[in-house]
Amino acid sequence: MLKLTRKVEYALIALRYMDRNKDRRCASAKEISDLYHIPLSLLSKILQTLSKVEIIQAVQGAHGGYILNINPEDFSMTELINILEGPLGIMDCSIDSECSQLDTCNIKSPITKVNNAIINVLNNITLADISEQQSTGLKI
Amino acid sequence: MLKLTRKVEYALIALRYMDRNKDRRCASAKEISDLYHIPLSLLSKILQTLSKVEIIQAVQGAHGGYILNINPEDFSMTELINILEGPLGIMDCSIDSECSQLDTCNIKSPITKVNNAIINVLNNITLADISEQQSTGLKI
DNA sequence: CATATATAAGACTAATTTAGTCTTATTAAG
DNA sequence: CTTAATAAGACTAAATTAGTCTTATATATG
Ligand code: SF4
Ligand code: SF4
Description:
The structure is a homodimer. In chain A, 48% of the residues lie in helices and 6% in strands. Chain A has six helices and two strands; from the N terminus they run αααββααα. The first copy, chain A, has a two-stranded antiparallel ribbon with strand order 1-2. In chain A, α1 crosses α3 and α2 crosses α3 (40-52). Chains A and B meet through α1, α4, α5 and α6 of A and α1, α4, α5 and α6 of B. The site of one iron/sulfur cluster has 10 residues of chain B, from α5. The structure holds a DNA duplex.
């Protein structure tokens, strides 16, 4: 509960790696998959999604891979989550939706404030924040 | 993803109701279940859990029910989530755990900061915040 | 040109988590 | 004694998340 999905984590891992390697021409899915022990097919799908919305740019064929296509400072966690998982909210009614309590719910408006506070946190964290900070492990 | 569970929402609905009815002796699971269209068995289990940790006090037998046993101002969302769902964290490694990326992960420490920020939001929201604020629907 | 190494796309399956049900026992008011 | 409650826990169903597999296409390089 209240967990980020693996898709989002894997995307962050890959995006940070690409950002830190911006000197090199491009990074392949295979390379990232090996380095961080992420299932290749899964990572591929994630990178394809990011490529489709032009967060990263794909280079096809042998020696291909992906290049970061955004300014990390301008790209928030909220945007990433939206791309990979759709609209973000801590309860169903924050988005659409068919909650059977909707008409009688006594917590909808207070919980909406909680929701806004959490979205606000994520809005204010950019890929640069994820990328710049020292990390443990490989530190790449 | 990043959703509150129904258990937590149902608990908040019930706790708010009890808080707003503190004049009455007690509120039964059936009564709350009917008012807010929450499955009775599910709500019962939730209230039993809250009763076991003495957030609410059970009154057995006919005319029984539950009475709020805490000061809403002193009871945070984090505590509630801990009781109903266990330790709170946006990623697996924030708690224990067996993440296969752990040794090479390049985002662990930055993501920990995000985690702390979100937990902080939840720490600072009390049942009083949920209860006091005007709501839509039944407004009970 | 052939081959090896990439991305692209999407169907499919497995695993895990969340939500909800059902059953049986106990308690106390009337 | 009957009725309306809580207590406890096994069980099932639904939904979400994670991961696999397959086939097609693109391109660098020998
Ligand atoms: S806040 Fe109320 S209406 Fe919204 S999803 Fe939760 S229970 Fe349903
Ligand atoms: S932050 Fe890294 S180590 Fe922690 S759960 Fe996510 S992938 Fe695993």
